User: Fold these one by one.
Assistant:
Number 1:
Amino acid sequence: MGKLVGFLRESDLFFNLNLTQLEMVENISEEITFQDKDIIFQENSKESEMYLIMHGKVEILVNPGLVAPKAGTIARPEIIAQFGRGQSFGEMALVDEGVRSASARAAAKGTHLIRIPRDKFLLLCKTYPELGFLVMFNLAVDLSHKIRNADLKIREVLLYQSRRGETHGR
């Protein structure tokens, strides 16, 4: 058994995989370490890897100025999420070939990650359909949780803006 299998077994993304399947995922994985404030990937870049956090923290940032820049202002990236041990990020790169929808930045010294490249992952899923189904199902559940969480945050902001409008409208 490899040194990553125990960690992969704890990850929600690889829930219900047997030892052989976990070893196959380990074989396509790469360990990588970042220091505090290191950029892992940039918003709008074309990279296609997914990451799992073994140790440390990762911040997910979006730059609001990329959508509708205001003349004469410099928009700064805003942190929209923070992830820790056992959590994954960058999963959308496994599902589609679009550009990154956000940036990812290490938020702790010695942030240790597992990087899983899209091409190797998809080949593994095609070669072993049962493994592919299990991981893609788990990935769908994980993304669903993240979307629901983002939906709640959007509703909070809208509610705050609505209440602020009522106060200023009087």
Note: The first helix runs from residue 5 to 10.
Number 2:
Amino acid sequence: MSVICKVNEADLGRIAAKISSLFGDPTRLYIHQRLAAYLDPYIPKETGTLAQTNRATPKYLEYSQPYAHYQYTGIVYGPNIPIKDEAGNVVGWFSTPKKHPTGRFLTYSHEVNQNAGPLWDVRAMAEHSKDFAGDIQRYIAARFNGGGV
């Protein structure tokens, strides 16, 4: 015994429109917001400014602090000229506006964030890609089923 199912053109049109709406700006914004949440435990933190000032939009997730690129790549850029006090102690650093990679790697403190390091998206997704995909799948399913999430 077999079962034959037919979908009429009007139904196909409604289904296609609903599926298309599932992948619009609200879904893409949700994806970038969830991505930020998964990346947060891997972003270097001293005060938390880098992670807290991210900007999620439907098109991208941006970390816009001036030092974000350096923290992400994990490579020291220079020249870095020490600023010393009267006793000769280094109290800070000065860098020229034009910087170049030095070939040295940054050292990340793990005091505030034990997973801190470079390429935080790659490392986060290596550990949590299935969780991340599951979040998105549940979100889309809820929207498809009228949850409107």
Note: Helices lie at 9-22, 25-39, 49-52, 68-73, 120-144.
Number 3:
Amino acid sequence: MKPSTPGFSFDIVATDASARSAVFDTPHGRVATPTFMPVGTQGTVKTLSPDEVADSGAQMVLANTYHLLLRPGPETVAALGGLHEFSRWPRAMLTDSGGFQAYSLAAASPSFPQRPLVQHAEDGFLFKSHLDGTLFSLTVERAVLVQGLLGADVQMQLDVCPPADAPREVVEEAVLRTTRWARRALSTSRPARQALFGIVQGGCFADLRAAHAADLAALPFDGLALGGFSVGEPIERMHETLRDVAPKLDPDRPRYLMGVGTPRDLIRAIGAGIDMFDCVLPTRNGRNGQAFTRSGRIVIKQAQWREDGRPLDDQCACPCCARRFSRAFLRHLYLAGEILPLRLLSLHNLHFYAELTRGARRAIEENRYAEWAQATLAQMGENP
């Protein structure tokens, strides 16, 4: 069933085997895909200004519904003009539904009793705030209404994310409940110019994923996402499932792989037909002293960089590399506990991810994606 939300369109520019280059038009601008969305959990990408994130090449960012529900609250954000005005982000934006946070908090509670407990029910999730213990109810309908108040261009349905080691019967129930919730989400009023994406579950059971993708494709979602990956399953198993499932998602809608991942993950998933990605990895790892480069990862605190006068990447145009801050200087600042290297490494990593997806788009449009992917992975020291 073709979606009809005004202000949105999705058009394929080129294909190369399963890989696609496309254009996703939103009310806040055009997004060329494949694309990577930096994660702005609280409405901002940590340590960076909106202009810096935009200058990195990011066309779309993600904000976290769970955290913004707790603080400052969706009503406050709406009263101040919505997330775009509130955060001063000028381009496209997506909000998640809070379902993954319910999964992660519930998974943490048995081992860490002091963490919030989450109760799953047919109606949604009941959880305690990690800030002050306040009890919150997040139903399917509430997730849509909260995201409507936040006002991002794209919102996600509430879904059930089963653990990576869940038995098949548990995954089957998660799929069935997510489908029931999909219909409820679509029946809930949301702003006229806000798209809604459905989420395909099924763990690493390719047959469950394919069947769920077909069920959701029959509903008028504006895009389809793959959730419940990178939650502890072996990476090769995730890649194998993606190869089987991603090409079976409706080709006329954006395909979004949630919460993934490493440069290698992106290259493999783009080859399988994925259009959109988000992950905390480039900025979180940057704040922890790790840089992604064309030649592989650099852990800046290592002694081998003590007297290294080279920038992180000679071919990178990010502010860190263009200004030619040396690896030695970055190491010194990081070990001294300064804030600047956390910002510089985060900026560099976002530039790297943006350039990686730009390179993928060029390769697809020139019908050489497999060659480009193999060469890029080899240069980074990854197994093609």
Note: Residues 109-116 have pLDDT under 50 and may be disordered.
Number 4:
Amino acid sequence: MESVINGKLVRLNLRTGEIFMQFRNTGIWKVNTGYGNGDYLRMNINKKQYYLHRVIYKINNPEWNIDDCSTNNSIDHINRTPSDNSIQNLRNVTNQQNQHNKASKGYYFNKKLNKWRAKIYTNGKHIHLGLFDLEADARDAYLEAKKVYHII
């Protein structure tokens, strides 16, 4: 599969996941593996930096605007694993939907009250869901609230 990104033709080998770019218009294609020391790899295309997961999503969805970095155009890793850039793991969502997919369990033990507290974060606010004697009840309260507030 291939797509033009920032004026350069970029190819994705579906079998290996490698990304190729033409080297200085010579007809020679080179693998660009990406770089970075965190979870999210980056790569340069015509002197512009892109996240690798956005490049892979663009190659698979040529009509998608990779340069639109608005809050309505995020790419989410469905399984919450940033190093898994398989197209099956990537989806286009809003920034808020992307935040909902963070690895937070939504409840914790409050030592001072000796209770489990459940809460959920949405629209920039924490919503208190209750205090519970049992961890399972706090977890259930969070999971029910997630169905209401974190619709993806």
Note: The first strand starts at residue 2 and ends at 5.
